[in-house]
Fold this protein.
Amino acid sequence: MCGIIGYTGYREVTPILIGALKRMEYRGYDSAGVAVQNNTLKIVKDAGKVSNLEQLVRDSVLTGKSGIGHTRWATHGVPNQVNAHPHTDEEKTIALVHNGIIENYIALRHELGKSGHKFVTDTDTETVAHLIEQFYDGDLPNAVTKALRLVKGTYGLAIVSKNHPGMVIAARMGSPMVIGHGDRENFVASDPAAFLHFTRDVTYLEDGEIAVITTDKVEYRNLADEPIDKHLEQITFDIAAIEKGGYAHFMLKEICEQPQTVADSMRGRLLIDEGTVKFGGMAAVSQTLQNAKRVVFLGCGTSWHAGLVGEYLFEELAGIPAEVEYASEFRYRSPILEPGTVCFAISQSGETADTLAAIREAKRHGTPVFGICNVVGSTIARETDAGVFFTRVQKSAWPPQKLSHRKSPFCSCSHCRWAVAAELAQAVAAS
Ligand code: GLU
């Protein structure tokens, strides 16, 4: 996972790129770089944090009204200056940034090598820049489309060329890409947080889609080169919630926010007096849930551990067999998903690539998949059949007026244990 930003408009591009990269640094942080268009194509990149790039950018004069930027989380090639994005073709005419893995890059490199292409990095990404250059005959969108038809793997891409000032091309296959529509300016990013200060009107790219972005319009097409219509959506969530919020590190922020997060997640949803819960996002699928014969939790890392808690609770409270699967293994092991099985995919960011792949595998079997994540508009939120956002909740029905069921502090029925958990969460949040 990495961060991608692209901009074209009337403002100076460099501060926009750097600001966006800082906001997305949680997505990847071993290297960072920018390419700025201004009749020329200037690239500044290095290993290290965005603050390091910021200093380098300050030292070189980087002016222009369009460009692309990247924070890297290396998969192919060590994190160093050469392997940092953006990558270019040999003539440095085309520059691009990439999130994902080009699975057939060795075969592509081999073929391009036969036509004289020389590669300078160890990355899979560089291959794509050379491939586009190979197809380029003056029409950049066309060259991108032709090149991407040969690429296997996952990508979110933002591409610029010295020959096409003011044009940024974006493409998606398996990695999130969102277009921000502004007034005489447009954006592309792997995360809308990158440009929410400027616009909340967005379009999400789907797999196999390409966006040709210029200052006053965005055109969409698919890999067959057919134009497609996309719908504009409005982002309503608050940007502060997905930033570091004053903490030095995201991990520290997450640890310190746990009591508040637990309390927020329960608020308005745990109906203690009624002995039940209320999830607006799940209402439409309540029948499917009631008929479920088996529950499979999908997640990676901490989400996988959260799934273990879910497993215990589902078996104990609902009496439904439950299990937890590593999302990263799920699609490789021919899972048995008989009718009556439902899946819950858990992801903090809503963008975990392995969890997304597991969701698609489950859906391929016709299994209903529900999401539990905390980013509205994220890919997992959009690709699951229904779900729950666990931090942004409505404020209602809290605090509970009375805990009528509770007989003694030692009552261990599930109703009372939930009530005690809720009280605890409330107390912690208040402290
Ligand atoms: N595979 C590319 C690389 O290693 C992109 C990694 C990323 O998503 O940051 O450079």
Notes: The first strand starts at residue 3 and ends at 8. Residues 3-236 form a domain with the Glutamine Phosphoribosylpyrophosphate, subunit 1, domain 1 fold (CATH 3.60.20.10). Residues 302-318 form the longest helix (17 residues). The chain has two domains: 3-236, 248-430.
